[in-house]
Amino acid sequence: MKDKIMDRWSTYEPFYVVLGDKKIADIIITNHARSRWIDRVESEKTGFEDICAFLWDRLKKDQVKPYYKNEKDVYVIEEDLVMVAEFSVLENEFDIAGNPLHKMIIVTFLGRMSEVIELRDLKSYYSWLRHSRRMTLIKNSRKRK
């Protein structure tokens, strides 16, 4: 998916999709993200190619948006599916204007907001998780003494 033929004959332009200020030319799915995809999103189409095809399609249709306006790593797909992604610059890959292209590294899929109500407010969800883990650690340390 890196090369797309342009209108002019025998001219190639690196294929990319714009997401915010990034020009995405490659998608990488981590093993953790794939396992979360199987657990929380889809149980039939679970291959790396299936997930990438889904993400490319949604990126091209402009259905991937940042979760919060200033957030750079949490995204919502189709206003439902929440994922965490990181970006890095592709070496020796540039658009026609000479701007760098990026690869999107999918860290994890958090789930669908329609199924997991807590995902509608991530900040309170994460603070609740931290608090519950902290309380679990405190309880476990009391048991050991």
Fold and architecture overview:
By secondary structure, this protein is α+β, with helices and mostly antiparallel strands. It has a domain at 17-113: YaeB-like fold, CATH 3.30.2310. Helix content is 32%, strand content 35%. It has 3 helices and 8 strands, in the order E-E-E-E-H-H-E-E-E-E-H. It has helices at 31-40, 48-60, 122-144, and strands spanning 3-5, 12-14, 17-19, 22-29, 64-66, 74-77, 81-94, 100-112. The strands form 2 sheets. Strands 3-4-8-7-6-5 form a 6-stranded mixed beta sheet. It has a two-stranded antiparallel sheet with strand order 1-2. The longest helix has 23 residues, at 122-144. The protein is globular, with a radius of gyration of 19 Å. The termini are far apart. Residues 1-10 have low confidence and may be disordered.
Basic shape: globular
How can the largest sheet be summarized?
6 strands, mixed
- In the CATH hierarchy, the third-tier topology of the domain at 17-113 is known as YaeB-like fold
The helix-and-strand class reads alpha+beta
Strand order of the largest sheet: 3-4-8-7-6-5
Oligomeric state of shown chains: single chain
Topology:
Blueprint (H helix, E strand, L loop, with lengths): L2 E3 L6 E3 L2 E3 L2 E8 L1 H10 L7 H13 L3 E3 L7 E4 L3 E14 L5 E13 L9 H23 L1
Parallel strand pairs: 4-8
Antiparallel strand pairs: 1-2, 3-4, 5-6, 6-7, 7-8
Any key phrases for this structure?
YaeB-like fold, disordered N terminus, 35% strand, 32% helix, globular, two-stranded antiparallel ribbon, 3 helices, Periplasmic protein
